[in-house]
């Protein structure tokens, strides 16, 4: 077997789940001080069942749980698991791998698991017993504890050697046998005491038994007579009861009839109230409808005003359009005059152009004639002449264009001035209408924004109303549920109080005594025990069960008070009762040790009862020797441990009696008497809390209702604002439409004039550009003509003639061309003007038609508006008629409601008279019932007396068929029998059974004593045999360990000697074991005189000696070589390596020599403050890779 892995989570400085894998050989755990190395060995020690917090380096078990850091939260539990290879079946478990887990919670709960199954600490101890890993094992050596193995204290040393010898199991069995032997001896003493007591009781009980048998004969005769007489009385009472039942039945019929009439009247009242309610609802509905009609009337009247206002605006528009039409007519007459003038000017100009063109043709002909006359000129001269002529014509055209440009521009500018003047008159009107249109648009947009805002507000108010309505509804529902719960609780308290007052559940005798005490006939009565004590709810069942019938016992001040009560019960034949005199009863307390530490123990029953100090002795007497525990399993465990010496009761009412008998099952007949008072108190407190909660809910509901009403008011106000804004929107839409129509009418004429002005501006730009180009061309043409004339002069030699002729021709041609061009320009200008004037005339003609059409359309719209106004007036009239009809209907409904209210008032009067009649019948019925109750009481008391005295019901008594001929003589004989019974004095009827029981018990106890003595002898023999086996096995192991100790010591010290010595050879198993060591060159008398290193080497030698004899599966050494020098560390490490054949070693160390021998290194770091982390380094594998091994 070897350790495969260690898993930790939440243990000390390992908050996260950490797993250490182990192989055979040597594993070293290294790290700086405080990094958490030693917590690994603590984890193994803890999971193996360590219970000492001191050995775990803590003050309480909770210290093993990770307690958190500045940045990490504390864990709620610690868990450690060991996984062991068990293929060699070293452990008594059939699995190849065994896992052992221990888990501890901050709440104090702890659990052990073996292979995932819940186990006990005892199972863990037994699993590892005699393996060296047990509770007293030697496989784990804690930090700084190595020297303790050779210290002067020998107790731990003996336990370690016994574990190595494999006798722990025997010692465990011997300790168990010794414990059982001690119990047997205690039982024997107790049994002998009981037997002695029984011997003193047998004689007196025999005498009492004979006397009781005589009493039974007399009592039997008395019983027959009493039963016969009581049955006769019961029968007569029963007949009277039947007569009374008949009277009560008649009275109940009358009462029922009166009640039915009352119910019918109430139904009629409710019906009238419902009719009134329905009428009120209908009135409200009609009023709501009327309100809607009024709102519609208001809306229609608003619309009517808007339509009338629209007609006014339309009339104003018609007047304006007519004015515009008049203005247009005047302008058209002016245009006609200008068109006529332009047409005349064009005709005149055309005639002049025709004449000038004819003249120009003549000049051209003359020039051609001149040219033909000069045929002597060469072809070049002809060409130059023709070219010069053409240039001259072009020059004349350019001059004309340049000279006429200014006049054209001036004329156009004059027209622009006219247009500006016309626009100036209309611009003011246009801007006015445009501003009106923009203002109308802005007002409409503002109104629409306000409508949107109001709609948003309405949505918000609606949501708020729904939310507050839902809250109010939920609160109302909760209030209704709480009210129902309150009434239910009050009913429950009333029922329980009635039961408490009537002492329901108590016997007849108890009731009789309490009634007499309340009447003042009995003094010194404190009351039933159940009414004098208080018990918490969770313990009430246990205390009721523990008390049993004693819960009804009556507490009295003195014995005399109890005697008086008993005499009363005897004389009144009211039954039997038990009395508890305060002055006489003294309690006894249970003095068992260790009960508080038992699992499942709650407390002594007497300590769970709250009562007045004067009743404390009575409580101790009844409950002082009764223990309360959690459940039956705990009760059985405690009872067995304390050999059934006292009574144990569980919280659910199961009982283990002293002696071992067990009682359990359902609740007894007294169950509930004690808890009833607790329930009343609990319900009363709950009732107060419920009332406070209801008051709070009512306040909340009132506030929520007010909030709901406020939200409704806000919503209705917003809806009213919306209605007004919609009306305003309709009016503003009419204004906007009118302004748009006015603006469109004016903007049409202004647009045409602006377009004409723009066209004229473009013509000025074109003429200006053409004139500038013409000036440049004139200069170019003059230069070309001068050049041609110079060349022509050279050719002809007659320059002056040529020039004179050409100038004359040119001058004439220029003048003619200039006139023709001027006339053409005039024609062109007049033509443009004519086109423009015709266009304007046509536009004005169309505008007049548009204005006529607009006037006609507005008149048609006015007619439609007039029709709408007429329709609206009719609708308003109809709605007003409907509203008037609604008011008439409301008046009729009010009149009907007044009738129902009068009917309701009359029914109320009738209801009062019937109520008085019913109360009278009820009183009569109550009187008859009281009389019946008295008869029934007499009947019940006789029946109860019959049952209390003889445990017989009436039917069972009648079945006895007792014959009495003369009831008078029977009464006399009954008196004689009572006298004879009285003469017998005090009689113990139970003495017969007691005598039989005591004699049988005496024989039983005698046999028990014999059995216990036999068991005692067997246990003594078992102890003797176990001791012999332990001694033999211990001696054999001790001698081997001692021999190996000396050898190992010499090897580690390089000489010297060491041995183990038994102080008493005859007492192998109990004597102290001394260690004698002598290092080389020293003579040490006391091992405490050795240095720390020498003590450590001596302890290591002893540890290795034990491992040689009984190898442990694995060992964990925590810095055992800390006190050694480097040389001894190397020796220690090499010795560990030699021991790895049979044992797996896990070494926690700081020393280099130890680390060098390790196959695997685990480094423990604390990079995060308070949290340990692991690093693994397989040194053996690394050494192979590096060629170092």
Q: Would you give an account of this structure?
A:
With 1189 residues, the protein is of the alpha/beta class. Helices cover 69% and strands 10% of the residues. The protein has a six-stranded antiparallel sheet with strand order 2-1-4-5-6-7. Helix 4 packs across helix 15. The chain is flat. 24% of the residues are buried.
Question: How do the strands and helices of this protein lay out in sequence?
Answer:
Elements: E1 2-9, E2 18-21, E3 26-30, H1 38-47, E4 77-85, E5 97-105, E6 110-114, E7 117-119, H2 121-128, E8 140-141, H3 155-165, H4 168-373, H5 379-501, H6 508-519, E9 525-528, E10 533-535, H7 537-547, E11 554-556, H8 559-571, E12 579-581, E13 601-604, E14 609-611, H9 616-623, E15 626-629, H10 632-641, E16 647-650, E17 655-656, E18 662-663, H11 673-796, H12 799-950, H13 954-959, H14 967-983, H15 991-1053, E19 1057-1062, E20 1073-1078, H16 1092-1109, E21 1114-1118, H17 1126-1138, E22 1144-1148, H18 1152-1157, E23 1160-1168, E24 1171-1177, H19 1179-1186
Parallel strand pairs: 3-22, 3-23, 8-21, 11-12, 15-16, 21-22
Antiparallel strand pairs: 1-2, 1-4, 4-5, 5-6, 6-7, 9-11, 10-14, 13-15, 16-17, 17-18, 19-20, 23-24
């Amino acid at each position: 077997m070897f350790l495969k892995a260690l898993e930790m989570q939440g243990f000390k400085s390992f908050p996260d789940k950490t797993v250490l894998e182990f192989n055979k050989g040597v594993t070293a755990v290294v790290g700086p001080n405080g990094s958490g190395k030693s917590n690994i060995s603590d984890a193994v020690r803890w999971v193996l069942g360590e219970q000492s917090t001191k050995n775990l380096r803590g003050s309480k078990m909770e210290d093993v749980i990770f307690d958190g850091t500045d940045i990490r939260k504390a864990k709620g539990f610690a868990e450690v698991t060991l996984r062991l290879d068990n293929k060699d079946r070293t452990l008594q478990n059939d699995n190849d791998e065994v896992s052992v887990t221990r888990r501890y919670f901050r709440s104090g709960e702890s659990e052990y698991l073996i292979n995932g199954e819940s186990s006990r600490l005892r199972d863990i101890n037994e699993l590892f017993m005699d393996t060296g890993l047990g509770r007293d094992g030697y496989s784990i050596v804690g930090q700084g504890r190595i020297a303790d193995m050779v210290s002067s204290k020998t107790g731990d040393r003996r336990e370690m050697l016994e574990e190595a010898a494999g006798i722990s199991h025997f010692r465990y069995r011997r300790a168990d046998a010794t414990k059982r032997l001690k119990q047997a001896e205690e039982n024997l003493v107790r049994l002998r005491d009981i037997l002695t007591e029984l011997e003193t009781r047998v004689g007196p009980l025999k005498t009492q038994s004979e006397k009781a048998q005589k009493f039974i004969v007399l009592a039997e005769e008395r019983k027959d007579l009493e039963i016969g007489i009581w049955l006769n009385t019961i029968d007569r009472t029963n007949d009277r009861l039947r007569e009374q039942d008949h009277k009560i039945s008649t009275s109940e019929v009358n009462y029922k009839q009166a009640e039915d009439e009352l119910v019918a009247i109430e139904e009629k009242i409710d019906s009238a109230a419902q009719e009134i309610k329905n009428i009120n609802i209908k009135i409200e509905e009609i009023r709501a409808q009327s309100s809607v009609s009024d709102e519609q009337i208001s809306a229609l009247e608003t619309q009517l005003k808007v339509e009338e206002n629209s007609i006014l605006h339309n009339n104003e528009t018609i007047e304006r359009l007519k004015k515009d039409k008049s203005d247009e007519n005047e302008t058209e007459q002016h245009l006609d005059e200008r068109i006529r003038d332009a047409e005349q000017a064009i005709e005149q100009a055309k005639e002049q152009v025709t004449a000038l063109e004819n003249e120009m043709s003549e000049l051209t002909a003359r020039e051609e004639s001149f040219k033909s006359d000069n045929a002597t000129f060469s072809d070049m001269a002809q060409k130059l002449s023709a070219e010069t002529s053409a240039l001259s014509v072009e020059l004349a055209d350019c001059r004309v264009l340049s000279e006429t440009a200014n006049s054209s521009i001036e004329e156009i500018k004059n027209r622009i001035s006219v247009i500006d003047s016309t626009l100036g008159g209309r611009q003011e009107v246009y801007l006015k209408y445009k501003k009106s249109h923009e203002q109308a648009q802005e007002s409409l947009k503002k109104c629409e924004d306000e409508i949107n805002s109001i709609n948003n507000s309405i949505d918000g108010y609606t949501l708020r109303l729904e939310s507050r309505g839902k809250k109010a509804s939920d609160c109302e529902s909760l209030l209704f549920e709480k009210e129902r719960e309150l009434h239910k609780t009050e009913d429950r308290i009333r029922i329980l109080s009635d039961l408490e007052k009537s002492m329901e559940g108590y016997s007849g005798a108890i009731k009789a005594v309490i009634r007499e005490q309340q009447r003042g006939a009995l003094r010194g009565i404190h009351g039933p025990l159940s009414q004098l004590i208080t018990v918490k709810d969770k313990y009430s069942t246990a205390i009721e069960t523990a008390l049993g019938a004693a819960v009804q016992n009556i507490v009295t001040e003195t014995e005399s008070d109890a005697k008086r009560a008993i005499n009363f019960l005897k004389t009144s034949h009211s039954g039997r009762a038990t009395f508890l005199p305060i002055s006489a009863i003294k309690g006894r307390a249970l003095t068992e040790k260790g009960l508080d530490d038992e699992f499942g123990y709650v407390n002594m029953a007497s300590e769970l009862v709250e009562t007045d100090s004067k009743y404390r002795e009575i409580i101790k007497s009844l409950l002082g020797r009764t223990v309360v525990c959690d459940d039956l399993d705990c009760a059985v465990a405690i009872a067995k441990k304390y050999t059934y010496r006292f009574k144990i009761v569980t919280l659910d009412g199961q009982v283990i009696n002293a002696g071992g008998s067990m009682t359990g099952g359902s609740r007894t007949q007294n169950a509930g008497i004690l808890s009833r008072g607790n329930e009343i108190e609990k319900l009363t407190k709950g009732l107060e809390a419920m009332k406070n909660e209801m008051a709070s809910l009512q306040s909340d509901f009132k506030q929520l209702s007010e909030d709901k009403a406020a939200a409704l008011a806000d919503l209705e106000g917003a809806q009213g604002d919306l209605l007004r804004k919609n009306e305003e929107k309709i009016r503003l839409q009419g204004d906007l439409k009118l302004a748009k129509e006015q603006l469109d009418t004016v903007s049409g004429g202004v647009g045409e004039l602006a377009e004409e002005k723009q066209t004229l501006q473009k013509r000025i730009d074109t003429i200006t550009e053409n004139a500038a180009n013409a000036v440049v061309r004139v200069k170019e043409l003059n230069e070309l003509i001068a050049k041609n004339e110079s060349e022509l002069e050279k050719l002809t030699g007659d320059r002056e003639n040529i020039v004179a002729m050409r100038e004359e021709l040119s001058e004439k041609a220029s003048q003619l061309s200039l006139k023709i061009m001027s006339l053409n320009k005039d024609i062109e200008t007049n033509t443009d003007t004519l086109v423009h004037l015709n266009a304007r005339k046509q536009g004005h003609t169309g505008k007049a038609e548009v204005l006529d059409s607009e006037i006609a359309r507005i008149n048609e719209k006015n007619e439609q508006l007039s029709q709408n106004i007429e329709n609206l007036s009719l609708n308003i009239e109809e709605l007003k008629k409907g509203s008037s009809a609604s008011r008439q209907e409301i008046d009729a409904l009010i009149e009907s409601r007044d009738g129902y209210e009068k009917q309701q008032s009359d029914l109320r009067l009738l209801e009062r008279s019937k109520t008085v009649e019913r109360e009278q019948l009820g009183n009569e019925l109550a009187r008859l019932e009281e009389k019946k109750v008295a008869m029934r009481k007499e009947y019940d008391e006789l029946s109860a007396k019959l049952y209390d005295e003889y445990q017989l019901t009436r039917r069972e008594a009648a079945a006895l068929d007792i014959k009495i001929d003369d009831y008078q003589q029977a009464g006399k004989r009954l008196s004689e029998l009572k006298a004879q019974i009285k003469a017998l004095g005090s009689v113990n009827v139970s003495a017969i059974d007691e005598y039989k029981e005591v004699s049988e018990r005496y024989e039983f106890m005698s046999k028990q004593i014999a059995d216990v003595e036999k068991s005692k002898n067997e246990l003594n023999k078992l102890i003797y045999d176990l001791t012999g086996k332990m001694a033999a096995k211990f001696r054999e192991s001790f001698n081997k360990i001692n021999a190996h100790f000396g050898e190992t010591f010499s090897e580690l010290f390089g000489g010297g000697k060491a041995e183990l010595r038994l102080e008493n050879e005859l007492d192998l198993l109990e004597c102290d074991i001394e260690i004698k060591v002598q290092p080389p060159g020293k003579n040490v008398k006391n091992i405490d005189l050795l240095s720390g290193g020498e003590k450590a080497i001596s302890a290591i030698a002893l540890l290795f000696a034990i491992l040689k004899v009984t190898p442990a599966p694995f060992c964990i050494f925590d810095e055992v070589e800390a006190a050694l020098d480097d040389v001894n560390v190397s020796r220690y490490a090499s010795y560990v390596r030699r021991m790895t054949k049979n044992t797996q070693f896990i070494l926690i160390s700081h020393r280099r020599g130890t680390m060098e021998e390790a196959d695997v290194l685990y480094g423990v770091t604390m990079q995060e403050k308070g949290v340990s982390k692991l690093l693994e380094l397989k040194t053996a594998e690394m050494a192979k890779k590096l060629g170092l091994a």
